[in-house]
Design goal:
The protein is built from five helices and six strands, in the order E-H-E-H-E-H-E-H-E-H-E. It is α/β, with parallel strands linked by helices. A six-stranded parallel β-sheet has the order 4-3-2-1-5-6, sandwiched between helices. Strand 5, helix 5 and strand 6 form a beta-alpha-beta unit. Helix 1 crosses helix 2.
Length: 151
């Protein structure tokens, strides 16, 4: 099973959001092989990674955490990717995408790969809401912990 996350760069009430994310993770099948695809771009991504690390340490040590990068730029990777935090790095086939659209296309690629998307979307605008709407149009299993109503 592949699980990915989408949420805003700035999150208020981080502790509460973290508790909600971890509650969802605790409800997963503990015997299933799970790969977490993480973006590592903002507050929600860091919350998601910390919850995945905790899940791996406390519940299912066989899960894998993967950093999915939109760029192969050395400076970007140096600032976002720490080998100690992840089991690997994935670069989707988006090399022909213009630089300014790479994160959007990476997010859509992550949604396409995922069996489940855990979101914390509170706004109708921005990258997180775009990714969530994209996933919903593809009938993905989405759990939104935010306030944005899903029609």
């Amino acid at each position: 099973m592949i699980i990915t996350f989408c949420g805003h760069r700035n999150v208020t009430g981080r502790d509460k959001v973290s508790e909600k994310v971890y509650e969802v993770l605790k409800g997963l099948d503990k015997n299933e092989q799970i790969d977490f695809y993480l973006g590592e771009y903002g507050d929600f991504d860091r919350i998601a990674r910390k919850c995945c690390e905790k899940y791996k340490k406390e519940i299912n040590s066989s899960v894998k955490l993967y950093f999915v990068t939109p760029y192969l730029d050395d400076m970007y990777l140096k600032n976002r990717y720490n080998e100690e935090d992840f089991d690997g790095i994935i670069y989707p086939e988006i090399e022909n995408v213009p630089f300014k659209y790479a994160i959007l296309k990476r997010n859509f690629w992550m949604a396409d790969q995922a069996d489940m998307i855990i979101a914390c979307v509170n706004n109708t605008w921005g990258g997180a809401s775009n990714m969530l709407r994209y996933a919903l149009r593809r009938d993905k299993n989405c759990i939104n912990l935010g306030n944005y109503g899903l029609i």
